[in-house]
Amino acid sequence: MTRSVQTLTRLRPSVPEPAGPEPTGSGGLRGGTGGAKGEGGAEELLAAVREGRAAAVPGLLESLDASARKAALTRLRALRAEVGAGKRATPPHLPDRVRSALYVAGAGCLPASATTAVAASWLGARDLLVREEDGALALAALGDRAPEWAADPALVATRRAQGPDQDSCLHQALSGVLDARLWEAADLVGTDALPFLLATPTWSTGAIEPRVLVERLREYRDAGVEPAPTDLAQALVRVARADPSAGRAAEEAAALGTPAGRRLAARLRGEGIVGATVRFLPRDEDGAPQRWWPSDRLVVDLGEHPAVRAEFPPAFRWLGGAPEAAPRRCPHRVEGRAEWATVLPADRELLAACLLPTLAHRVEGDARGAAEPLTALVEADGPVGRAVLLALAFGLGRVDADDRLRAVDGVLVLAARGELNARRLGAELAWLVAEGSVKPNRLADAARTAAATGAYRTVWTVLEAMLPEVLAPARPVRGLGEVLAVAADCVERCGARGEVAGLDALASGRGSSQLVVQAGRLLSALRQGADQPPTETV
């Protein structure tokens, strides 16, 4: 999907987008003139919240005057009980209900002169709200505000200061960043402490254009405002360092003469950038379950950056590196997957390394949605290394067809951009298929789907690199015939030629099984080639 110059077109589908990009401090946050509807409008608004009609809430808020907004906020006490009951019953629209309620809470806490669009930007944005638990707690803090609208300081302070502990998995760390931003916004909304949020994205991936962030910091400086720590940290992590304007923006940021400006300039110059490498421990020879599945053997090494741990708030300090690297199981419920990619939109390989534990966990299980972040991952900035390729490989082998389709889309997007190393992807698939972590029938389905778009040569290049290893055993991997059928079809369509180690011996075997038949078909196609030009479309 093409990047949008408007704010979070995909990630905030329930929020009406501004007519065009906002290049200065407001970051695309525009206000309305407000209306004069009273109690009737508040009733309609709260009905929309109860029903989870999040898309309708911003428009209904715009029609309310300040007194009606505060009345709606007071009514949230009763609605909170419904949210709690709904959480136990887990209705399908609960996240939209909580998000809608946060819109109402933010609008009710604003001064009478403020606009409801600003409230939406502070508390209703998809890049802020992730987990139902924290959304409901933030709603509680806002809904219980006294007439002077002062939040519970102990609750908010505790949640703002939280960071992952030594035993936290990477997905908890990603969710912790989003939670910290929600709580910081919940504490500041309505206080006039900040004119707007620095970390509001300008791209659909969650990234921020460098010069836009410079202008936001300039407005902060001119207004004599200090950035909120978590908001500034997220903005620095989100800034698009690969953007052509990054060099000029670094000079302008340094010229601001503020600590935040100097930190931005250093970030844009590539100082203190966090890296990650991934590796897998060998399987236990006795087949012990504690080191059998890929997720039990995965090790993610984050580079050591003491400056990151010193300068960033608690929720971000894990990016400065862990004292020791070891596999960390992630067996608990996973929430907020679709939003994780917006935390690290400028560091694709690091983001992929953080997503791998979830993608690798129980690849054989029936859990759905684990591949949700793949679309945003491939659209992010940064190099495509082993972590990204492994994320795609695990996605291609997922049980759920929709997850496999997301991985196929990711492969095709990278291929179209010239960023896909198809042979390296094939090499990763080879060992995953050989050890049984990725099933051939699921890989064949994904490869067939990709080839159907016209990407015959891309698919063949991946499979060509994978086949020698999986054909080598005395007893080839079960179900490999389907993969060979897709490979043969791709070779016949793209006219590839060459040899694949082990294919000749397999094709000359006895019998009429699909494995032998398709091996012979692929061997014949490779030897014959084709006269027609390639039909590659990506």
UniProtKB/TrEMBL annotation:
Domain DUF7824: 191-246
Domain of life: Bacteria
Compositional bias (Gly residues): 25-39
InterPro entries: DUF7824
One Pfam assignment: DUF7824
Region of interest: Disordered: 1-41
Protein name listed in UniProt: DUF6493 family protein
